[in-house]
């Protein structure tokens, strides 16, 4: 597996609380992505980053924000968690120019009560 | 934006038989089509991919075919084994990000069960 870690791996929180998920890579890849996975929906892109401090929205970005202050770290923040954000969150990375393959991290299971 | 539909949602096959999963996409500009396998509780892992300048690609027991005119692509697994049991996802690229990389749109997944 590519050098990608996610923390925490499991989290239970209450509605209205802020939550931050961390993705850390040791591959020095330029592109990083956050997806959520829900039954029947496959993986849906939340936000992505194409460099330090360079980020953009994916298809399901409402209620989420991201930050990337270092190449190796990509943070996903739920400012005020809702039950609809209960999901499994995957981070992915891809190589710079010439390669499209995305490698996924181990995932974070988030439950919002 | 891109839309990817995947069928069937579940597939049960006898060990040794073949399995076929089909996906259709909407954006004719899509040019990269990966397939991922996800075992229970694990991360998705790339098993094969194809680009729009190629019609077919094989890797041992798995193959992918692409029909750009009809905008569909398929995964074929031959001589299925119990370890092929997993959820499979297709995806299509919805365009380059800043001249490199790709935004992927995923299908809903197919749960494959190989019965011994």
Which terms summarize this structure?
heterodimer, A: 113 residues, mainly beta, 11 strands, B: 116 residues, six-stranded mixed β-sheet, five-stranded antiparallel β-sheet
Explain what this protein looks like in three dimensions.
The complex is a heterodimer of chains A (113) and B (116). Chain A has 113 residues and is an all-beta fold. Chain A has strands at 4-7, 10-13, 19-25, 31-38, 42-51, 54-57, 64-70, 73-78, 87-94, 102-104, 108-112. In chain A, the strands form 2 sheets. In chain A, strands 2, 4, 5, 6, 9, 10 and 11 form a 7-stranded mixed β-sheet that branches. Chain B contains no helices and 11 strands. Chain B has strands at 4-7, 10-14, 19-25, 32-38, 45-51, 56-59, 62-67, 72-77, 86-97, 100-106, 110-115. In chain B, the strands form 2 sheets. In chain B, strands 2, 4, 5, 9, 10 and 11 form a 6-stranded mixed β-sheet that branches. A 5-stranded antiparallel β-sheet of chain B has the order 1-3-8-7-6, with no helix packed on it.
Helix content of chain A: under 10%
How many whole angstroms does the radius of gyration of chain A measure? 13 Å
Query: SSE order of chain B in H/E notation?
Result: EEEEEEEEEEE
Number of helices of chain B: 0
Most residues in contact, chain pair and counts: A-B, 28 and 29 residues
Strand fraction of chain B: over 45%
Extended strand count of chain A: 11
How does the overall form of chain A come out from the CA principal axes? globular
Instruction: Summarize the biggest pleated sheet of chain A.
Output: 7 strands, mixed
Query: Which stretches of chain A are poorly predicted, pLDDT < 50 over at least 5 residues?
Result: none
Q: How would a crystallographer describe the biggest sheet of chain B?
A: 6 strands, mixed
Q: What proportion of the residues of chain B is helical, as a percent range?
A: under 10%
Q: What are the segments of chain B in which pLDDT stays under 50 over at least 5 consecutive residues?
A: none
Number of strands of chain B: 11
Q: Give the terminus-to-terminus CA distance of chain A.
A: 32 Å
**What does the oligomeric state look like here?**
heterodimer
The general outline of chain B is globular
């Amino acid at each position: 597996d590519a050098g990608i870690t996610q923390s925490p791996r499991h989290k239970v929180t209450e509605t209205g609380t802020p939550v931050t998920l961390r993705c850390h890579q040791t591959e020095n890849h330029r592109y990083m992505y956050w997806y959520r996975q829900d039954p029947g929906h496959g993986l849906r892109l939340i936000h992505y980053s194409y460099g330090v401090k360079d980020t953009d929205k994916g298809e399901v970005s409402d209620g989420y924000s991201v930050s990337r202050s270092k190449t190796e770290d990509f943070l996903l923040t739920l400012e005020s968690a809702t039950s609809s954000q209960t999901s499994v969150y995957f981070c992915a990375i891809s190589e710079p120019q010439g390669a499209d393959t995305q490698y996924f991290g181990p995932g974070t299971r988030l439950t919002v009560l | 934006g891109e839309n990817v539909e995947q069928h069937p949602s579940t597939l049960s096959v006898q060990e040794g038989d073949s399995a076929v999963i089909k996906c259709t996409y909407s954006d004719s500009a899509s040019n990269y089509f990966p397939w991922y396998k996800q075992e229970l509780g694990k991360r998705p892992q790339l098993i094969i991919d194809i680009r729009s300048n190629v019609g077919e690609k094989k890797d041992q027991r798995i193959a992918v075919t692409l029909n750009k005119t009809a905008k569909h692509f398929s995964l074929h697994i031959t001589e299925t084994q119990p370890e092929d049991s997993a959820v499979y996802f297709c995806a299509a690229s919805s365009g380059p990000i800043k001249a490199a990389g790709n935004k992927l749109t995923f299908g809903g997944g197919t749960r494959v069960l190989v019965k011994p």
